[in-house]
User: Which sequence fits this backbone?
């Protein structure tokens, strides 16, 4: 009985050991399977990752190459375009320069023609103007002077010598000529002209001055009256302008006469050289 119990205990012990061994083996096998599965999964995961990286790199390289190629082509194309543009611009500029030069030459030619025509026109106008001016500025002949009153010359013109004045009792110059005539004799204009003044001169008495062309002027002094003319009146040669008197203070002691002067540009002249 004891043996059987012991045997049973031994068998139970063996069974327990077997169970333990089996359980341990199963656990060990499970661990091994788990480890192997984990390792396989890890390797697979790594392989997938590397493959993904490889694919990504490959795709990236392909895209980079395509991009580089495309970029390289674009640069070349751009360079070609720039070159073509530069050539085109150069050609255009040359064309524009040639065109501008041609236009400038044409303009200069036209300007020259216009200048020549203008110069010719101006020359013609100048010639015409000169002709007109020459016609307008044709020299007016000097007036011909006639003796303003009939009579003999009592006292001559003296600008560079002295003549005796009985009134003043001195030897002095004489700016005109004295023509003797009866008192109230009519005095006439020596030439055509305009009466510029009628005044009572303190030295030569009642005096009429007439202006003529080309700067000539005649003076009629020692008059008795001047009722025939007024200042500003145009007179003709031989027209009455006054009568002989004895109003000249410097010649009051002389016989009745006309004191007659002739000036050219306000310079005293010898009247006898001009009287006809």
Assistant:
């Amino acid at each position: 009985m004891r043996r059987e119990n012991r045997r049973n205990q031994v068998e139970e012990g063996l069974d327990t050991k077997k169970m333990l061994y089996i359980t341990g083996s199963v656990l060990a096998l499970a661990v091994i399977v788990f480890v192997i599965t984990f390792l396989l999964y890890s390797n697979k995961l790594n392989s997938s990752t590397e493959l993904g990286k490889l694919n990504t790199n490959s795709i990236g390289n392909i895209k980079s190459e395509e991009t580089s190629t495309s970029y390289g082509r674009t640069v070349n194309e751009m360079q070609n375009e720039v070159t073509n543009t530069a050539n085109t611009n150069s050609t255009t500029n040359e064309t524009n320069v040639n065109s501008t030069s041609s236009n400038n030459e044409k303009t200069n030619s036209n300007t020259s023609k216009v200048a020549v025509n203008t110069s010719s026109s101006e020359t013609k106008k100048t010639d015409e103007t000169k002709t007109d001016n020459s016609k307008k500025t044709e020299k007016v002949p000097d007036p011909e002077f006639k003796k303003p009153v009939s009579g003999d010359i009592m006292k001559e013109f003296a600008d560079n010598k002295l003549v005796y004045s009985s009134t003043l009792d001195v030897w002095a110059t004489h700016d005109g000529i004295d023509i003797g005539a009866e008192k109230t004799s009519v005095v006439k204009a020596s030439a055509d002209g305009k009466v510029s003044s009628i005044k009572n001169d303190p030295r030569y008495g009642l005096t009429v001055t007439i202006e003529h062309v080309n700067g000539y002027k005649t003076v009629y002094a020692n008059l008795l009256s001047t009722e025939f003319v007024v200042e500003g009146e145009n007179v003709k040669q031989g027209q009455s302008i006054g009568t002989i008197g004895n109003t000249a203070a410097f010649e009051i002691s002389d016989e009745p006469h006309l004191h007659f002067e002739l000036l050219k540009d306000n310079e005293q002249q010898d009247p006898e050289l001009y009287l006809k």
The two ends are 213 Å apart (CA to CA).
